[in-house]
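Researcher: Structure for this, please.
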Amino acid sequence: MKYVLRFALVCAIGIVAAGAAIMPPPATPTDSTVDTVQGVKIADPYRWLENWDDPKVKAWSDTQNKYARGYLDRLKSQTPIKAELLKLVTATSPAYYALSAKGARVFAYYSDPAKQQPMIVTLNAAADPKSRKILLDPNALDAGGHTAIDWFVASGDGTKIAVSLSKNGSEAGTLHVYDVASGKEIGAAIPEVQYATAGGSLAWAAGGTGFYYTRYPGPAVPDADRKFYMQVYFHKLGSDWKSDPLALGKNDGLEKVSEVFLDNRFNLPTVMAMVQRGDGNIWAFYVLRQGAAPVRVGNYGDEIVFAGLGPNGAIYAISRKNSSNGKIVKLDAPTPDGLASAKVIVPESSVAILSGGAEQQVSDLAFSKGALFVRDIVGGPNQVRVFDLNGKPMGTLPLPDVASNNEIVTLADGKVLFDVSTYLRPRYYAMWNPKTGKTSESGLKVVSPISFADAEVTRVFATSKDGTRVPVNIVMKKGTKLDGANPVLLYGYGGYGISQTPGFLGSFRRLWLDAGGIYAIANIRGGSEYGERWHQEGMLTRKQNVFDDFAAAAEYLVDKRYTSHAKLALMGGSNGGLLMGAEITQHPALARAVVSAVGIYDMIRVENDTNGAFNVTEFGTVKNADQFKALYAYSPYHHVTAKTPYPAVLMLTGATDDRVKPWHSRKFTAALQAASSSGYPVLLRTNMTSGHGIGSSLSERIAEQTDELGFLFDQLGMTWRPMH
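Model: Predicted structure, token format:
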């Protein structure tokens, strides 16, 4: 939650919720669609809701939105909560993130709480916030806040910048190049460089006269394939992009679901191309050089999960070959398949080397001129070890005990900026001086009116169905009585090796605590909190472990009297939405209320979508008998049972979501509404101008948070009063 808010109402406004009355949901017609998959007949009575081009589906969606608004808009909490959120946003200082030092400048995203969208700014070489200059402001391009920056890459000398822009949360990006000094656009925009699933990427060639970039095939292929078959082209500034030569493509080993990420952070003659097979964390690596054929330095079977070029031109990589926790290997010069036998310079240890993946635009390995920074994850929190470029230990960066780090940036003078996030303090950057070994806080920090001085973080362990110990982080006000009467909101994700690391809790959780709630985050399998084994134990045919872990965390909170089933709420989105769907159908009595956003609910047909095809390496395919059996066993949509007392459910989706198609939410909502006998609401909220949540405007995010809090407060009978 990036936006932090201020409690500043003049007088206390008491909001008492006791479960607002709700009319029965609108009836949804069914059909007789039945598929036979692996010899099993599977009914799909709401198949017709998949076709967004059908006016009947749009009318149904409109009816559902009106039904949801009929409930949400009647809640007394809505108006004061929304007003409070907006007031707190404007009282929070702007935030900087995604720093990149190039030439005499530092480039960064700059998120002004008063603006709908983050912008790109430049700072001086010392990253002094007082030197800030706005380079590109999407709010000036689109007053409605519906144009967003997907990503940006500055040239090695800092004189030019390439930016992908998309609209309405679609993540369908067009590339623009700007001169940094004048702010003027250079040349024609290049379309179809970025889509929601495989993303997009760019790396400047040395000297800044051109760049390598990803592009999709466009009208050259059938519409069904336009978001597949990503290729890499080279563009020379001043030339016609339609004639750009192919630099890496199908003949080099790229596949239909390849995801390519390019890197040349040190302005070298060579560029690293990291190629992921779908979303399954399976990688191959190529080194590109102008005028030469690509050199494939790593293959999918090598179990290398990240590789980058260091300042000395050597290749440094994270290998998981016979080492679940990871080790660092070094290849002095690009040679065909060289990473398979590269020299180990940092052996595997008892903690896991963090690999967030290039997809998250994170440099898993960071460098200064003479140092290598290795980020570890210890069950959730991070640590950062420092080595010289040959692997000799040089100590660690100082982080608080329960904290995370995402960025490490070396400035022109050799000093190193690194960000620090904790649950209870807003994100800030610290400065490490390698010459003195001393660290101090920089001026790049968020100042928030929100204080969690009255709160504490406790880390406990639940025992899952198979005996695995699962970490659970619990945030509550000091002195909270464990009498089973506290409302608890439990959050989880559990997939793609994405770990739940500490981050400032912000306004949403502050309001939750002020209403008497407890907030908990479960470090369930599917992430990489304990290395790749933790991920692998929660993927493919072992996905059920994820749901068992989360249920165990919930039961722990009840057993230890943090809460009761009647006061427990669950929350998750995307892959975490699948988690919510599984908990609703497998454990309908587990929680009183569930908030599930942009989730996957039909695991039988998901792979037919663009994103679903990329997800096969994570979830599996119905074409494989064993994987089909596992998918069908937990697919939420197919396990909705008639006359079952399901919890209150708020489903959220975006009409332009290309990562998880909104029809998942439509079909699952219709099934739950028809089946639930509890009398609790099952609501579907569709935002017509947003997608998966990436690129959503500030007003859209505030509106969504308002609805979520209002729904939860009402269903759990919570009272909220603004702080003085």
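Researcher: Any notable elements?
Model: Residues 55-72 form the longest helix (18 residues). The first strand starts at residue 15 and ends at 16.
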